[in-house]
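Incident review: delayed structure delivery

Summary: a single-chain prediction request sat in the queue longer than the usual turnaround. Root cause was a stuck worker, restarted by the on-call engineer. No data loss occurred. The affected request and its eventual output are reproduced below so the record is complete for anyone auditing the incident later.

Affected input:
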Amino acid sequence: MKIAILGAGAFGTALGGILADKGYDIDYYDSKVERERLSDVLAHAKYIILCVPSVAVPYLLPYLPKNIPLIVATKGILVDVAFHDFKDWMVLSGPGFADDIKARKKTFLTATDSRVVDLFNTNYIQFDFTDDRRGVLMCGALKNVYAILAGLKNLKRETGEWREFVRKASEEMATILEVNGSEPETVELVCGKGDLKLTCGLPSRNYEFGTILKKNPNYEPTNTVEGLSAIRRIVRHEIMVPAKAKLLREVIDAVK
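Output delivered after worker restart:
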């Protein structure tokens, strides 16, 4: 069975490695080097896995067939409206660094469909489950925003201050999910609180960006910082932000 993976970066190739080891035929699409190959990569694919940066998603989706099951593994997508035209889509997310997956270290992920579990389940990948696709997407975007703030505050893992920050950020995320029509309980899954804990510290790129921004408020990153992209979309009112989301408003003000 052929599976098309759109995005040949670290996470896309890590997921592809799992599938290749299980005997699936994997074909990658890397828009940076081979734009003309998209139709060839999609041809005869039984699943499409989306692993491109979130800023690239709106430009790529119009070219994808709407009748092939789509697995969204891109983190940083705040809303699900872009997928409403797809007949069959699901989400894969959670606290997994690509290098750890490639090294076959035990990793916990969240799936919104049993087929995702069937495809990726191994002795080192384990899953929890929800059908709250929108909530899983939002967790994958919001945790990056809070990681920037953790970097701005220079919080160190497992200190009392860090634990209190994670607790408050988790509560805010649950409130934000609820006011936007998702399940607040989704934050308790690894795609929520688990990924938040992983991202609020090094080697997270979002956390590192926050530490640099604290020293240099005019710093402009050269690599993709998903939390920064999410903040810009929040400022454009893509989601509702409750008044009591004080940490979220704090990081938005700092980045402005």
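Verification: The longest helix spans residues 133-152.
Action items: add queue-age alerting; document worker restart procedure.
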